[in-house]
Amino acid sequence: MSVAPDAALRRDAIPDMTRRLDGFARGVGFDEATPRQIVEKVARGARQHREAGP
Question: Domain of life, per the record (predicted)?
Answer without folding.
Answer: Bacteria
